[in-house]
Amino acid sequence: MADDQLSEVFDLVEVRGVVSGGFAVQGPWASRAAIEGLKFFAMVSGRARLSTDGLDEPLQLEAGDVAVLNDRTWLTAEGGSGDGPPREVTPEADFTSIHLLGAHGAGADVVVGGHVDLNPAGRALLLQALPPVAHVRGSGTAAANLRGSLYRLVGELTEYRIGSAFAVRQHGQLLLLEVLRAYVGQAEPPPGWLRLLADERLRPALGLMHAEPGRRWGLQELARAAAMSRTTFAERFRSVSGVPPLTYLNRWRMLLAQRALRDDDVRVGSLAFDLGYASESAFSTAFKREVGESPLRYRHRLRD
């Protein structure tokens, strides 16, 4: 599809939502874990209170809600009702179990968790695009696809159908996509690429840069595509993305360069020309400034 920059970014940074655990429990319960990177905590049924570093008070999760934890260090979740001390639960490594199957839909609290795998460029990009904790609500029409993805995922986990392992991997991907879509629809992300991709006024200019990254784009030309004055366009772009338009373009070029060096056998000089650099030396300098090492060293390190 044309102008689908989110899919382009997902492909470039190799985003992968991985379902890695879950549990179903009745009565009072608590779950604690040390965490890192990008994690998601999905409330399939029931409700829970989620705490983590960076939150002033527990987050109240209802059925269908998903919390995305961005580079936090610990997580505590509590739920259930009734007398007695809470039961300590931990996500099961193999949670396609008869326990989960029997509990789902039987009044239990059901939780599915996982993490987001990315390449190094993607990690920096997504960590910057999300707040410390993103609460995506499953209620309302805007999250209908999110709820559908979550329930289809649980169906694959519990129904033991042929090809379920493959289906779970695909549904993990789609769940992550729907989480980001719903989040953008419910809240304003911090300045960054996710907020930029959702900005309809800037989308025409962004589409030009993505379609021809090697072209020498000027602010006036990009502003005209967005139907704005040059000053208004530059100010809006910077407030939405966190960087000026041409800085964004250079970073986009570097993401494309990293993929080409990782996956293709293109010569560095040809790559420099394709991405709009006047010389291989100018490209190598820009690449080292952004990535921290020369193009050839980057290629050799990833292929060794």
UniProtKB/TrEMBL annotation:
Keyword list, A-Z: DNA-binding, Transcription, Transcription regulation
Q: Does the keyword Transcription regulation apply?
A: yes
Determine if Transcription regulation is one of this entry's keywords: yes
Name all HTH araC/xylS-type domain ranges.
203-301
Q: What's a Pfam family in this record? A: Cupin_6
Q: Name one GO molecular function term.
A: DNA-binding transcription factor activity
Q: Give the source's domain of life in one word.
A: Bacteria
Family annotation (SMART domains): HTH_ARAC
PANTHER family assigned: ARAC FAMILY TRANSCRIPTIONAL REGULATOR (PTHR46796:SF7), HTH-TYPE TRANSCRIPTIONAL ACTIVATOR RHAS-RELATED (PTHR46796)
Q: What is this protein called?
A: AraC-type DNA-binding protein
Q: Which organism is it from?
A: Jiangella alkaliphila
Highest lineage ranks of the organism? Bacteria, Bacillati, Actinomycetota, Actinomycetes, Jiangellales
